[in-house]
Amino acid sequence: xxxxxxxRISVAMIVGAVFGALMFSGCxxxxxxxxxxxxxxxxxxxxxxxxxxxxxxxxxxxxxxxxVGFDGCNTWNGSxxxxxANATLSFTSATEVACSKDVWLEKxxxxxxxxxxxxLTDSAGTQLGKLYKSES
Length: 136
Description:
Lipocalin; eight-stranded antiparallel β-barrel; 35% strand; globular; META domain-containing protein; HslJ-like_sf; signal; DUF306_Meta_HslJ
């Protein structure tokens, strides 16, 4: 059986097309899975305050891992670190004004974001309060 010149060209073109298709199929990006998009990283940075207009209790986290808080009586300063969507707070200094009202900010050791609120807890995991992201 003898293959004509025209047949050899056709076979060569088919082999070349298959080889080219195989080469380019390795250059395609991986398929993006359907369903849930990747979650945006949680950011504690910014000012958080009570939901009422007084904003009496508030805390502000900066990009350097420092925070300052005010509970309506005393000002608290410290640092924070984030791990597994939780912030651990370490107080370094505070004013010591004698306060007649219940102040709870000094008891906070942990924080996490739940929806649009910042939930503040003590070392036992007891919720002490909620603050909300401030626009200003």
